[in-house]
Amino acid sequence: MAKYVCAECGHEVETTGLVTVCPECHADMTGVLEAASRNLRKRAADLVRDDSVTTHEYIVRTRGLTRIYKMGDVEVPALKGVDLDIRRGEYLSIMGPSGSGKSTLFNLVGGLDKPTSGSCYINETDMAQLSAQELAWQRCRTIGYIFQTFNLIPVMTALENVTLPMIFAGASSDEMLERGRMLLELVGLGGRLHHKPNELSGGQQQRVAVARSLANSPAIILADEPTGNLDLLTGKEIIDLLKELNVESGVTIISATHDLKMIDVSDRVVHIRDGAIERIERREDIELAVGIMGGQEH
Amino acid sequence: MDVKKLAELGGGGGEKSLVVQRQIMLPWSDAFRISTKSVLLRLGRAGITATGIILGVAFLSYVWSDHIFSEGVEKARVQQEQSVAQAAETVRGTAGSATTEASQKQTAEQLAATAKEKAARQLWLVIMSLLVCGIGITNSMLMSVTERFQEIGTMKCLGALDSFIVRLFLIEAAVVGVLGSVAGLIVGSLFVILFYGIKYGFGVVGQVNWAQLSGYMVASVVIGAVLSLMAAIPPAIRAAQMPPAAALRSEI
Fold first, then answer.
1. Disulfide engineering: A165 pairs with which of A6, A19, A215, B214, CB 3.0-4.6 Å?
2. Are B202 and B190 in contact (CB under 8 A)?
3. Are B177 and B35 a contacting pair, CB within 8 Å?
4. Of A103, A113, A248, Cβ closest to residue B3
5. Contact at 8 Å (CB) between B42 and B170?
6. How far apart are CA B21 and CA B23, in angstroms?
């Protein structure tokens, strides 16, 4: 979204370029918009495609998402009305300092928490309207989770960890084993099916977690700082794996991260600060910025 | 990476499965497998929980088999006394037998009264000790729930319902309960057998009413398992109420 000043009344209008009429004085703002985007024609075209065109299918939409935590008598607003649309097949990173509301947004999108007000739609279904049973179904079949601390069940082998969501989904045991094996081969752990998490390295554990997140063919993978507990190289491997999955299977990836390596592969980066979206960067912009920075440095 | 495989992996699989089924499930067989595995691989924690059961059931089975063994010893003694008395009678003739019978009846009544009092006191002790053990188990399982908050949260993220978590914890409690009860039974019975064996000779084992004793053995295992299950209800409910977002917290 960009801000434009109406030529007639001086009102500041926030639009992606699709709305061309000033909401205050109803003056035609096409001229203003065109002027603003003359130098950035390509970007403007992308902007329009980016946020507002409804012909695109959005897998996640949030409207006025607000979450207030009550700590004793004090109300702490963690999220203050977030509107975010995430396209199917997008690789989206959510960045922000700790305490910015990043995790809260993540929890709400993942159906792990309920908003104080506003709504979050996944596949056009309002998460707040779902029963416990339906919500569990959603978590099991539509969303795959990857955690910073891997969160494999310590008493289960890699294969059992991957097949656990399939048990919940009601798969037959042959089907489960075959698919579990295939997924672990896919992440490069075909030879470690029967290893326990404590017999695997951090990177390998996270690979098992990636395989587990794919267990029931999710439409979305939610990754909470997936590289936070990994060294640089293994972190890069996990990022590449996620990107590969994203490109080749079209699964939507939403990832909360501090990791700058993540930016390279993200289609968009959402910056959160003080419970609100500060800005949204697209990859093209970032690449440009990185290029300029590189130029200045050397 | 195999693109063909990938194509069937992700991206809008949600809708496809919508048609198939909207029911999340955890079959009992799988729940049992997961729970027993969890117990067997966490023997340290399970051992602490089981100690409560072992002690409680050991005490219970000690009291019961002590009762049966003392009856057995008593029976043997009475038989012996009777044969001695009969021998004496044949020697002395029938004179004075009435007084002996009367005094014998009196002592029997006295014995019965003390036995009754002793039984009541023991029952009270057994109930108290089982209660204490039950509270110990609850405490130990609450600790285990706290230790496993991340695991529980993760399971919920993977689609587990509250009832699955309750089911897993109760099966675990039942497994620990049965194993602990059997161990407690063995400990308690061995103690009694050793005690009576050393005091009266191991021949006493043959004097015991084994039908009654095995009935008691089964009962004490059942009581131990039920106790463990009951004690696990509050921790299991607490585990089920654990929010799925707990999985995301990296530190406690």
1. A215
2. no
3. no
4. A248
5. no
6. 6
Measure Cα distances from B116 to A28, B60, B67, B109, B121 in Å.
102, 17, 11, 11, 9
Coil, strand or helix: which one is A226? coil
Give the chain A residue whose CA is nearest to the CA of B9: A217
Alpha carbon distance A238, A213 (integer Å)? 13
Residue A59 has φ and ψ, to the nearest 5°, of: -85, -35
What are the backbone angles phi and psi of residue A4, rounded to the nearest 5°? -130, 150
Q: Which residues of A touch B33 (CB under 8 A)?
A: none
A113 touches B: beta carbon within 8 Å: yes
Nearest residue to B27 via CA among B171, B132, B141, B124: B171
Q: Could you tell me if A46 and A282 are in contact, meaning their C-beta atoms sit under 8 angstroms apart? A: yes
- The Cα–Cα gap between B181 and B223 comes to 8
Interface pTM, i.e. ipTM: 0.74
Task: Report CB contact under 8 Å: A217, B16.
Answer: yes
How far is residue B115's CA from residue B40's CA, in Å, rounded to a whole number?
43
Query: In whole angstroms, how far apart are CA B157 and each of A105, A107, A203?
Result: 16, 10, 21
Whether the CB-CB separation of A166 and A215 falls below 8 Å is answered with yes
Strand, coil or helix: A82: strand
Nearest CA in chain B to A222: B157
Which run of H or E residues covers position A143?
strand A143-146
User: Alpha carbon A175 to chain centroid distance?
Assistant: 29
Query: What are the phi and psi torsion angles at A13 (to 5°)?
Result: -110, 130
Residue-wise pLDDT for B237-247, tens only, equals 999 988 888 77
Spatial CA neighbour of A106 closest among B158, B249, B155, B18: B249
CA nearest neighbour of B36 among B222, B179, B150: B179
Q: Which residue has the tokens 């912009």?
A: A285
pLDDT in tens, A108-143: 998 888 899 999 999 888 888 888 888 999 999 999
Q: Which two tokens stand for residue A152?
A: 């494999």
Q: What are B212's two structure tokens? A: 């009654």
Sole residue written with tokens 């106790």: B227
Residues of chain A contacting B144 with CB distance shorter than 8 Å: none
pLDDT tens-place string over residues A6-29:
777 777 776 655 566 777 777 777
Model confidence, pTM = 0.76
Q: A180, A244 in Cβ contact below 8 A?
A: no
**Distance separating alpha carbons of residues A93 and B33, to the nearest angstrom:** 38
Q: Where does chain B have alpha helices with state H?
A: 3-7, 13-20, 28-41, 43-92, 97-147, 149-157, 162-200, 204-207, 210-240
B-chain residue closest to A166, CA distance: B158
B24 touches chain A (CB under 8 A): yes
